[in-house]
Write a structure and sequence with these properties.
The protein has 140 residues and is α+β, with helices and mostly antiparallel strands. Helix content is 39%, strand content 12%. It has a 3-stranded antiparallel beta sheet.
């Protein structure tokens, strides 16, 4: 699995160095796959973690969500993406059920928890951006 450093993460997410450091370090909203270990050491990030950071950016910038209040939800999102194959996520959405649960679903599929408010985040635009940055396959 290819891991990238902060500079590449910034290019793939549009996050500033300060925001990336704040989200992955100080606040611990999204954990790097390999944390930095002292001076001169760099944190490293997998494509799944970069995808989680891109989704956090959507929540913050487009929906004005206070991420610190939803730290647990971001952890669940990152956990849901862990171990998934890149092609398997094509055509999927990340369903956020309030601040309680997350679920990866095929776009247009039946949602399991209709008693809660649901926010659907399409993954396709993010996968397109990551396919170039990580050299991932374009098709299933």
């Amino acid at each position: 699995m290819r891991l990238v450093k902060a500079r590449e993460v910034q290019a793939l997410t549009g996050l500033t160095a300060d925001r990336l450091r704040e989200w992955t370090g100080r606040r611990g909203l999204v954990r790097p796959d390999i944390p930095a270990r002292g001076k001169g050491s760099h944190a490293r990030y997998s494509w799944q973690t970069v995808l989680a950071l891109r989704l956090a950016g959507v929540l913050k910038d487009q929906f004005k969500v206070e991420l610190q209040a939803h730290r647990e939800l971001l952890g669940k999102m990152q956990h849901e993406l862990a171990g998934k194959s890149f092609p398997a996520l094509r055509g999927c959405v990340m369903a956020l059920y309030g601040s309680a649960a997350v679920e990866l679903r095929a776009s247009g599929s039946h949602l399991s928890n209709l008693d809660a408010a649901v926010l659907l985040l399409p993954l396709e635009p993010h996968l397109e951006a990551l396919s170039n940055g990580f050299g991932m396959p374009d098709a299933v």
